[in-house]
Amino acid sequence: MIIDLISFSFKKNNLPEANYLIDVRFLNNPFYIDELRDLTGLDKEVIEFFKKDDGTKTFLKVLVKWIEYIIEVNKKANKEKISIAIGCTGGQHRSPYIVEGLAKSLINRKIISELSIYHNELKKYNVVVQT
Fold it and tell me: Could you tell me which residues are beta bridge partners of residue 2?
């Protein structure tokens, strides 16, 4: 099964086509910390911010379990591909971090054969093929 993970901005109203849409605006936002404002969820400092945040850690664990379930259900239904979009206010900090964390967990658990990651607001795209 191929999984597309997309981070995006609700503020820019560019909702991507997706089978599943997840809103992470409830997570703590590094935008309000001066040193982190201009960074992204892919930068080391922001990653460290989220790794120390209990709410983000808990949510990511729950999300991974839920997505594993969703993948299994879709596999049983013979779906070849699903798309999961994760959004936050600006698409810069929270949603890219969650997309990357989810991707890493799914790859480490060998749940999928192929994964593509697209960060709408960061204009970054990556494909990971599991062997």
Answer: 81, 114
Indicate the pairing of strand 81-88 with strand 2-9.
parallel
Burial 50-84 (b: 16+ CB within 10 A, else e): beebeebeebbeebbeebeeebeebeeeeeeebbb
pLDDT tens digit string along 66-79?
999 999 999 999 99
> What H or E segment, with its residue span, contains residue 88?
strand 81-88
Cα–Cα distances (Å) from 129 to 82, 86, 116, 126, in that order, read 15, 21, 8, 10
Contact at 8 Å (CB) between 3 and 116?
yes
SS3 109: coil
